[in-house]
Amino acid sequence: MGVVRNEHERLFEAPAEAVGALLDRLSAEDDPVFPAPQWAPMTFDRPLAVGATGGHGPVGYAVTEYEPGRRVRFAFTPPDEGFHELTVEPRGEGRCLVRHVLETRQRGLDFLLWPTAVRPVHDSMMEELFDNIERAVAGGCARPVRWSPRLRLLNRLWWPRPRTVGVPPEARLLRGSVERPRYQDAYRMDMRAGLPRDPGAWTGVLRDAFPVIAREGGEVLMDVNTAGLTARASILVDERHVTLSTAVRADTTCARLYWGAVRRAHPFMARMVLRRVHRGLCLAAPTAGDRAAAAPRSSVSAPSHLVSG
Fold it and tell me: For the chain, percent helix, then strand, then coil, each to nearest 5?
């Protein structure tokens, strides 16, 4: 087994107390620095504190050391070994250095995956985190990270897949729109900070090809009748999830034949389009730093020039 050590740091023309306060909001609903929704958010089973467990995406870890405003260390969840940590160091009046250190042991396929896939993603995420600090304390980022084609491919490949669920009780428009449906399904993805809560923003799931015929609260109902089918699709958005549901009834021989031909492909297509729109909206959403800079509570008294290191 080999040991990997990876370090990133950046010097900010901002007080350590102001930057440390931003890091103290890691994993909170208003997390101003972790690069979500473009990447999976950092989440824990409780507010940031020693003993909190969680991680981001497939990477699991727990908080083992925490000095508010100064340092937080995360230990990787077994079978992974090692840690990563963020520190804020004062560097004179109105200036501080933020450093991220990762140290872990490689095993098995790690020797191949680390240089080809994991390190490029990790390196980008850390620099994006620094970009968000810059946006939050200075109101903008002079030289934001630009994704390479390989990074875009990795982001696409690792994007989460929709989960199959039952049609939610809250999808009242859908439930009342098709009498005695012969087929129903529903697929769900997690909402992320920065994503639109207006269900109308999600109608691109069906490429805006079908008319919206009703709207109530966080649900929109679309008419997806085709080839004689009575079919409706619902998009339901709440604080935690976006759910795409479908109800279908085939009343004629022609409709039954058509539905018999397309039914097997329908779940695949529904999951694919929901995932595509979810990712597209995440990539188009404001960064965590932009959201923090725009929020009244996040205003920070700091000079606007930052020095990269």
Answer: 30, 30, 40
The closest of 82, 77, 79, 66 to 27, measured between CA atoms, is: 66
Q: What is the pLDDT of residue 307?
A: 38
Of 262, 268, 221, the closest CA to residue 245 belongs to: 221
Residue 101, CB half-sphere, CA atoms under 13 Å: how many?
Answer: 12
Q: Tokens standing for 288?
A: 């965590």
C-alpha triplet 132, 133, 137: angle, nearest 5°: 115
Q: Comparing C-alpha atoms, which of 11, 48, 8 is closest to residue 28?
A: 48
Q: Which residue carries 């700091």 as its tokens?
A: 302
Give dist(CA 243, CA 274) in Å, integer: 9
- pTM as predicted: 0.91
Q: Please state, in angstroms and rounded to a whole number, the distance separating the CA atoms of residues 83 and 5.
A: 10
Query: Where do we find the tokens 């725009």?
Result: 294
Q: What is the pLDDT of residue 20?
A: 97
| pLDDT computed for residue 108 by the predictor | 87
- 26-28-30 Cα angle (round to 5): 100
Residue that the structure tokens 């919206």 belong to: 212
**Rounded CA separation 187/167 (Å):** 8
Q: For 96-136, what is the HEC assignment? A: EEEEEEEEEECCCCHHHHHHHHHHHHHHHHHHHHHHHHHHH
Question: Can you give the pLDDT at residue 130?
Answer: 98
| Helices (H), ranges, 158-252 | 172-175
Which residue ranges of the chain lie beneath pLDDT 70? Answer: 1, 297-309
